[in-house]
Amino acid sequence: MIICKTPREIEIMREAGRIVALTHQELQKYIEPGITTRELDHIAETFIRKHDAIPSFKGYNGFQGSICTSVNEELVHGVPGDRVLREGDIISIDIGAKYNGYHGDSAWTYPVGVISEEAKKLLEVTEQSLYRGLEEAKPGARLTNISHAIQTYVEAHNFSVVREYVGHGIGQDLHEDPQIPHYGPPNKGPRLKPGMVLCIEPMVNAGTRYVRTLEDNWTVVTVDGKLCAHFEHTIAITETGYEILTTL
Question: Where does a divalent metal cation 2 bind (predicted)?
Answer without folding.
Answer: 105, 168, 201, 232
